Amino acid sequence: xxxxxxxxxxxxxxxxxxxxxxxxxxxxxxxxxxxxxxxxxxxxxxxxxxxxxxxxxxxxxxxxxxxxxxxxxxxxxxxxxxxxxxxxxxxxxxxxxxxxxxxxxxxxxxxxxxxxxxxxxxxxxxxxxxxxxxxxxxxxx
Length: 141
Ligand code: HEM
Known about the structure:
Blueprint: H1 2-20, H2 27-31, H3 33-50, H4 63-77, H5 89-93, H6 100-116, H7 121-131, H8 135-138
Helix pairs in contact: 3-4, 3-6
This protein binds protoporphyrin IX containing FE.
Protein backbone atom coordinates (compact mmCIF):
# COMPACT_ATOMS: atom_id res chain seq x y z
CA UNK A 1 0.00 0.00 0.00
CA UNK A 2 2.82 2.33 0.99
CA UNK A 3 4.69 1.71 -2.24
CA UNK A 4 1.48 2.17 -4.26
CA UNK A 5 0.96 5.58 -2.66
CA UNK A 6 4.58 6.45 -3.31
CA UNK A 7 4.23 5.50 -6.98
CA UNK A 8 1.03 7.53 -7.28
CA UNK A 9 2.75 10.49 -5.68
CA UNK A 10 5.67 10.23 -8.10
CA UNK A 11 3.30 9.95 -11.06
CA UNK A 12 1.46 13.08 -9.96
CA UNK A 13 4.74 14.98 -9.66
CA UNK A 14 5.84 13.92 -13.14
CA UNK A 15 2.47 14.92 -14.62
CA UNK A 16 2.59 18.28 -12.85
CA UNK A 17 6.08 18.90 -14.24
CA UNK A 18 4.94 18.10 -17.77
CA UNK A 19 1.96 20.44 -17.66
CA UNK A 20 3.93 23.34 -16.21
CA UNK A 21 7.00 23.01 -18.48
CA UNK A 22 7.78 26.03 -20.68
CA UNK A 23 6.50 26.05 -24.30
CA UNK A 24 8.99 25.13 -27.03
CA UNK A 25 11.28 28.00 -27.97
CA UNK A 26 10.64 29.50 -31.42
CA UNK A 27 13.02 28.81 -34.31
CA UNK A 28 14.12 32.45 -33.96
CA UNK A 29 15.16 31.85 -30.35
CA UNK A 30 16.79 28.48 -31.04
CA UNK A 31 18.89 29.94 -33.86
CA UNK A 32 20.20 32.66 -31.58
CA UNK A 33 17.99 35.72 -32.10
CA UNK A 34 18.58 38.94 -34.02
CA UNK A 35 22.33 39.01 -33.65
CA UNK A 36 22.84 35.51 -35.08
CA UNK A 37 20.36 36.15 -37.90
CA UNK A 38 22.28 39.27 -38.87
CA UNK A 39 25.53 37.26 -38.89
CA UNK A 40 23.88 34.60 -41.07
CA UNK A 41 22.48 37.22 -43.46
CA UNK A 42 25.76 39.10 -43.69
CA UNK A 43 28.03 36.08 -44.21
CA UNK A 44 25.69 34.45 -46.75
CA UNK A 45 25.40 37.68 -48.76
CA UNK A 46 29.18 38.19 -48.69
CA UNK A 47 29.57 34.74 -50.26
CA UNK A 48 26.92 35.18 -53.01
CA UNK A 49 28.09 38.69 -53.83
CA UNK A 50 31.69 37.49 -54.27
CA UNK A 51 31.16 34.19 -56.08
CA UNK A 52 31.60 34.73 -59.87
CA UNK A 53 28.66 32.36 -60.44
CA UNK A 54 26.19 34.50 -58.46
CA UNK A 55 27.64 38.00 -58.08
CA UNK A 56 26.11 39.66 -61.19
CA UNK A 57 22.76 40.40 -59.44
CA UNK A 58 24.45 42.29 -56.61
CA UNK A 59 26.35 44.83 -58.69
CA UNK A 60 25.33 48.33 -57.58
CA UNK A 61 23.25 47.00 -54.66
CA UNK A 62 23.79 48.65 -51.25
CA UNK A 63 24.95 45.56 -49.37
CA UNK A 64 24.67 47.05 -45.87
CA UNK A 65 20.97 47.82 -46.46
CA UNK A 66 20.34 44.42 -48.05
CA UNK A 67 22.04 42.60 -45.16
CA UNK A 68 19.78 44.32 -42.63
CA UNK A 69 16.69 43.76 -44.75
CA UNK A 70 17.42 40.02 -45.15
CA UNK A 71 18.11 39.74 -41.40
CA UNK A 72 14.74 41.38 -40.62
CA UNK A 73 13.01 39.12 -43.12
CA UNK A 74 14.56 35.99 -41.58
CA UNK A 75 13.65 37.26 -38.11
CA UNK A 76 9.96 37.57 -39.04
CA UNK A 77 9.94 34.24 -40.90
CA UNK A 78 11.37 32.35 -37.91
CA UNK A 79 8.95 33.87 -35.39
CA UNK A 80 10.97 36.79 -34.06
CA UNK A 81 9.58 40.12 -32.99
CA UNK A 82 10.95 42.24 -35.86
CA UNK A 83 9.54 44.53 -38.50
CA UNK A 84 10.34 43.77 -42.15
CA UNK A 85 9.73 46.80 -44.31
CA UNK A 86 11.01 45.45 -47.60
CA UNK A 87 9.24 44.26 -50.71
CA UNK A 88 7.62 40.87 -51.28
CA UNK A 89 9.93 38.13 -52.61
CA UNK A 90 8.19 38.35 -55.98
CA UNK A 91 8.64 42.13 -56.33
CA UNK A 92 12.21 42.33 -55.02
CA UNK A 93 13.49 39.65 -57.42
CA UNK A 94 11.24 40.34 -60.42
CA UNK A 95 13.81 42.16 -62.55
CA UNK A 96 16.82 40.03 -61.64
CA UNK A 97 16.31 37.01 -63.95
CA UNK A 98 17.57 34.64 -61.26
CA UNK A 99 18.14 31.05 -62.45
CA UNK A 100 17.60 27.78 -60.57
CA UNK A 101 21.39 27.30 -60.53
CA UNK A 102 21.90 30.69 -58.85
CA UNK A 103 19.15 29.95 -56.34
CA UNK A 104 20.72 26.60 -55.43
CA UNK A 105 24.17 28.16 -55.04
CA UNK A 106 22.74 30.70 -52.60
CA UNK A 107 21.02 27.94 -50.62
CA UNK A 108 24.37 26.10 -50.45
CA UNK A 109 26.09 29.30 -49.23
CA UNK A 110 23.39 29.61 -46.57
CA UNK A 111 23.91 25.97 -45.50
CA UNK A 112 27.68 26.54 -45.22
CA UNK A 113 27.09 29.70 -43.18
CA UNK A 114 24.70 27.90 -40.82
CA UNK A 115 27.25 25.10 -40.35
CA UNK A 116 30.11 27.55 -39.76
CA UNK A 117 28.04 29.19 -37.01
CA UNK A 118 27.18 25.82 -35.41
CA UNK A 119 23.43 26.04 -36.00
CA UNK A 120 21.85 22.65 -35.18
CA UNK A 121 20.67 20.25 -37.88
CA UNK A 122 17.05 20.59 -36.76
CA UNK A 123 17.15 24.39 -36.91
CA UNK A 124 18.98 24.33 -40.25
CA UNK A 125 16.36 22.03 -41.78
CA UNK A 126 13.48 24.10 -40.35
CA UNK A 127 14.90 27.29 -41.84
CA UNK A 128 15.57 25.71 -45.24
CA UNK A 129 12.02 24.31 -45.25
CA UNK A 130 10.61 27.82 -44.70
CA UNK A 131 12.73 29.28 -47.52
CA UNK A 132 12.39 26.47 -50.11
CA UNK A 133 8.85 27.39 -51.33
CA UNK A 134 10.08 30.96 -52.02
CA UNK A 135 11.96 29.58 -55.03
CA UNK A 136 8.84 30.05 -57.16
CA UNK A 137 8.90 33.81 -56.46
CA UNK A 138 12.68 34.30 -56.69
CA UNK A 139 13.54 32.23 -59.77
CA UNK A 140 12.16 33.79 -62.94
CA UNK A 141 14.46 32.35 -65.60
C1 HEM B 1 14.92 31.91 -50.59
C2 HEM B 1 15.90 32.66 -51.13
C3 HEM B 1 15.93 34.15 -51.00
C4 HEM B 1 15.42 34.97 -50.04
C5 HEM B 1 14.65 34.57 -48.79
C6 HEM B 1 15.75 36.33 -50.41
C7 HEM B 1 15.42 37.46 -49.66
C8 HEM B 1 15.62 38.74 -50.05
C9 HEM B 1 15.20 39.92 -49.32
C10 HEM B 1 14.49 39.90 -47.98
C11 HEM B 1 15.55 40.99 -50.04
C12 HEM B 1 15.32 42.47 -49.66
C13 HEM B 1 14.10 43.03 -50.34
C14 HEM B 1 13.81 44.45 -49.89
O1 HEM B 1 14.50 44.98 -49.01
O2 HEM B 1 12.87 45.06 -50.44
C15 HEM B 1 16.21 40.51 -51.25
C16 HEM B 1 16.73 41.31 -52.24
C17 HEM B 1 17.62 40.86 -53.18
N1 HEM B 1 17.91 39.56 -53.49
FE1 HEM B 1 17.14 37.94 -52.57
N2 HEM B 1 16.46 36.31 -51.57
C18 HEM B 1 16.59 35.01 -51.98
C19 HEM B 1 17.27 34.57 -53.09
C20 HEM B 1 18.07 35.35 -53.88
C21 HEM B 1 18.98 34.87 -54.90
C22 HEM B 1 19.15 33.39 -55.28
C23 HEM B 1 19.62 35.95 -55.44
C24 HEM B 1 20.67 36.02 -56.50
C25 HEM B 1 21.57 35.08 -56.71
C26 HEM B 1 19.08 37.13 -54.76
C27 HEM B 1 19.45 38.43 -55.03
C28 HEM B 1 18.88 39.53 -54.46
C29 HEM B 1 19.22 40.90 -54.81
C30 HEM B 1 20.27 41.33 -55.84
C31 HEM B 1 18.43 41.74 -54.02
C32 HEM B 1 18.44 43.28 -54.00
C33 HEM B 1 17.49 43.82 -55.00
C34 HEM B 1 17.49 45.33 -55.00
O3 HEM B 1 17.88 45.97 -54.01
O4 HEM B 1 17.13 45.89 -56.03
N3 HEM B 1 18.15 36.72 -53.83
N4 HEM B 1 16.24 39.15 -51.22
